[in-house]
Amino acid sequence: MIYEFIQQGGPWMYPILGVSVVGLTFIFERAWFWFRLWLAQDGRLRRRLL
User: Fold this and answer.
1) Are 14 and 6 within 8 A, CB to CB?
2) Whole-angstrom Cα distance, residue 50 to residue 3?
3) pLDDT value at position 11?
4) Three-class DSSP category at 46
């Protein structure tokens, strides 16, 4: 079903799909970075309070 949808979109669908995958990769990488940073700071704050 997805393959048929991409085929109907024509040749521009492949670059759009590629850029979308790269963009989502950056979004997930940045989210992972900020989540890990938040966890690290949370641990420091917890140790400081105890």
Assistant:
1) yes
2) 56
3) 92
4) helix
Residue 45 and residue 49: Cα distance in Å, rounded? 6
User: Containing domain of residue 17, as a range?
Assistant: 1-47
pLDDT band (50, 70, 90) for residue 35: confident
50 vs 17, residue with greater confidence:
17
What b/e sequence results for 3-28 when a residue is b if at least 16 CB atoms lie within 10 Å of its CB, and e otherwise? eeeeeeeeeeeeeeeeeeeeeeeeee
What is the tally of structural domains in the chain? 1
Gap between the Cα atoms of 18 and 32, Å rounded: 21
Query: CB under 8 Å to 7, separation ≥6 — which residues?
Result: 13
